[in-house]
Amino acid sequence: MFKLLYAPTSPYVRKVMVCAHLAGVADQIQWLDSAANPIRRDDRIAAHNPLAKVPTLILADGHALYDSRVICEYLAHLAPQAGLFPDIGPRRWLDLAQQALGDGLLDAALLARYERTARPSEYQYAAWRDAQLVKVAACLDQIEQQAPALATQAPTIGEVTLGCALGYLDFRFPEIDWRARHPGAAQWEAAFRTLPAMQATLPHEA
Length: 206
Known about the structure:
The chain is α+β, with helices and mostly antiparallel strands. It has 8 helices and 4 strands; from the N terminus they run βαβαββαααααα. The chain folds into 2 domains: 81 residues, Glutaredoxin, CATH 3.40.30.10; 111 residues, Glutathione S-transferase Yfyf (Class Pi), Chain A, domain 2. Helices cover 52% and strands 7% of the residues. Strands 2-1-3-4 form a 4-stranded mixed β-sheet, covered by helices on one side. Strand 1, helix 1 and strand 2 form a beta-alpha-beta unit. The longest helix has 28 residues. It is globular and about 45 Å long.
């Protein structure tokens, strides 16, 4: 049995749980409540992760894994037949680059959101937030280029991360309306989000 410190709105937690479902180990994970926050440290998380961030996975022996990339690879190693991380070769590097693309989109989107939600209004820096959204737009353009080759069945870590990233934009940035300019990515995402692992992990407010 594993324990996962989580937040129900975190796209990185969703990424981990999608991998857990695809690896067939989701029912072995106990969810531990936490209050992850970019300003206020939660001692429940900090006791296992010095960064006090979610997701943090606590193994049966008490050791903790953190950063979604590490946790996802650990879960994939438990079920190599799922094919979440391809063996060494060109496909693996492509998938890892797609994971970095999705994570980069999420990093920029979260910074843009925190500028409005975590920083007092008198200290908010509009140009900084706009710069993060430029990164989001550039990532969307790249996903659009890659969309024809993205899988909707038997996904790897690349597609999982991109699917969670686009889902986060729907959840937190509906005003971006990313589908209007990215029909290929929109078509792929519409099919990908029907996967049971994606449906079981939809973000929600606590």
